[in-house]
Amino acid sequence: MKKSGLILFNTLGRKLETFKPIHKNEVRIYVCGPTVNDVPHLGHARQQIVFDVLRKYLKFIGYKVKFVSNITDIEDKIINKAKELNEDIKTLTARNLKTHLEDYKQIGVEKPDVQPKATEYIKELIDLVKKLEKKDYTYIIENDGVYFDISKFKNYGKLSGQNIKELKSSRIGIKEEKRNKEDFVLWKFSKKDEPSWESPFGSGRPGWHIECSAMSSNILGLPFDIHGGGQDLIFTHHEDEIAQSEAGYGKKFVNYWIHNGMVNVNKIKMSKSLGNFKTIRDLLKDYSGSVIRYFVISTHYRNPIDFSKQALDDAKNSYERLKNIISEIKNDKKINKDYLDKFKEAMNSDLNTSKALSVLWELIRDEKAIGKYETINKIDKVFGLDLLKKEKINIPNEIRELVNKRERARKNKDWKKADELRNEIAKRGWSVNDTPKGYILKRV
């Protein structure tokens, strides 16, 4: 399939750009994975789904994709959570990681090709800090850690558009020993009862930002094609990654920076710290993984999503209508090139999944269209919605009772009663159609 034509919004430069991979037929991607201090919520789900769709679409248009997403298994939040629960850190992170992986699988997210843990890359992390130290980008704050001096990196702020002079002039809330407000820790010196590793700078543990730089660079090489994450990571996490990586390795870090929008509740970002979050596991009690995916891809990835029960209920109803219509489609073994081209046009326009969904709806409603089944099959290789999968429908007891009453009325040739019951069934969101082999019951 033709690869050209994909346009993505590159946060580095803040504009739409035609995607051109470093290697002709291969794309290398790194996406910031979860910090496993707790279980995943809908905000995590959105990021996972967005980059899963990007990965699937790149494969769809013919690229070989190497997809890396890390696990942060040592960080302040993890240490604090373990203390709060009086639990061993390894036990805490293992349990939460298991939940993350299980929940991501439930929402149709493919496991990364490589999924490194920060604690597995301590040597590489230390090596990068040593490179930075040798090039005079670092300084030490006694009894604290090794810090990166942002004033030494001339392009600091290029990703987020921050002005380094303004950052230097603002000293509100700055730690007294820091040279600049936004200087960040590379290596934290060990404290009592906290995990630590030996290093040339002293016993300690890595800072959060250095973890992603060391893992992505060592696994993918520099530069690589795409770095992804949520918009909340642009400043400072991704800004700091660029600074320490390019300063330490002396090469460009990444060509394209892709960031997804936030999930909001009443226009406020969903987050653990605010307590306004919905876990994936809680949502899966009422909605299938496919419904959650449908909900996420119904909005362009860069726009915010406003979460509400009503919004998810609407997505559920829309998804079930879509599945019901598709279940009637016969496979004529053909492909509808016109609709497939429309789908690609939407996806090539900065992964416009909401527009691509509208193309899918247009296809299934087009009575004259050929090749529906196989075209849907191809589209769903990107969406991952299980659109052609036959599923057992859970029929509520009250609907079963109404259907049984209607069958008895039909058997007694009480057509008026049968029609009344059909209407009552329809009012409750179900349709019943009679065939020579019996009735067919569906959600509408």
Structural summary, described in words:
The chain is of the alpha/beta class and 444 residues long. The protein folds into 3 domains: 7-269, Rossmann fold; 286-383, Four Helix Bundle (Hemerythrin (Met), subunit A); 397-443. Helix content is 43%, strand content 16%. The chain has helices at 42-60, 76-85, 89-106, 122-134, 164-169, 208-220, 234-249, 280-283, 289-297, 309-326, 337-348, 353-365, 372-383, 397-411, 415-427, and strands at 7-10, 15-18, 26-31, 64-69, 138-141, 145-148, 184-189, 204-206, 224-230, 254-260, 263-265, 268-269, 305-306, 430-435, 438-443. The strands form 5 sheets. It has a 4-stranded parallel β-sheet with strand order 4-3-9-10, sandwiched between helices. Strand 5 and strand 6 (145-148) form a beta hairpin. The radius of gyration is 26 Å and the shape is elongated. The mean pLDDT is 95.
Which structural traits does this protein have?
alpha/beta, Rossmann fold, 3 domains, four-stranded parallel beta sheet, four-stranded antiparallel beta sheet, 15 strands
Report the span from N to C terminus.
36 Å
**Strand elements, count:** 15
- What do we call the CATH topology of the largest domain? Rossmann fold
Rg for CA atoms: 26 Å
What's the structural blueprint in terms of helices and strands?
Blueprint: E1 7-10, E2 15-18, E3 26-31, H1 42-60, E4 64-69, H2 76-85, H3 89-106, H4 122-134, E5 138-141, E6 145-148, H5 164-169, E7 184-189, E8 204-206, H6 208-220, E9 224-230, H7 234-249, E10 254-260, E11 263-265, E12 268-269, H8 280-283, H9 289-297, E13 305-306, H10 309-326, H11 337-348, H12 353-365, H13 372-383, H14 397-411, H15 415-427, E14 430-435, E15 438-443
Parallel strand pairs: 3-4, 3-9, 9-10, 11-13
Antiparallel strand pairs: 1-2, 5-6, 6-7, 7-8, 11-12, 14-15
Helix pairs in contact: 1-9, 1-13, 4-6, 4-7, 6-7, 9-10, 11-12, 12-13, 14-15
